[in-house]
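User: quick one, fold this
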Amino acid sequence: MKIKYLFDRVVSLIGLICLSPVFLVVAILIRVKMPGGPVIFRQKRVGLHGRLFTIYKFRSMSAAPSDNLSIAAAEQNRITPLGEKLRRYKLDELPELWNVFIGDMSFVGPRPDVPGYADQLQGEDREILELRPGITGPASLKYRDEEYMLLQVDDPKKYNDEVIYPDKVRLNLYYLHHYSFWKDIEMIACTVFGHKMNYAGEKI
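Assistant:
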């Protein structure tokens, strides 16, 4: 996957440079519309080979203390109007370009979980820890509306643990064993333009 590694480094650097005006505008909006907290949200996530790293995002929630939960529905009431727009258009994830540039993440791969979920992986499922976490990926594309899906069920945590998370693991294992650089490019394009894609033989 050497070409993937080189692609990540070069394109993330270009992205950081070209999107710097967008970074500045978003940072100013957060300062004005969401005072009382930092512009950048930092959190420990599980990365390559199970090592922890710090992920960077634009803050999308109020500055109230966080319970460090991974279930988005549990935090929905803390998302500000500006934060909702940043999440809808994935602008909150732009600082992850820095994570890609320094090698903590890749453009395409499993979304990095908070400690707790990856620790429970067993057997073949642990193979997904051989992948660098990604900004996007097959599971991210399939569950791009995950926050809203979880709001529709009675027990979001149970639904995530028993339905969504196992399916994400399955998709990420398929990605690991059927890697294609051109599929990576397709997934990046689908993420940018908000499209879905057929992956692992699934119907859209």
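User: anything notable?
Assistant: The beta strands are 40-46, 52-58, 106-108, 134-136.
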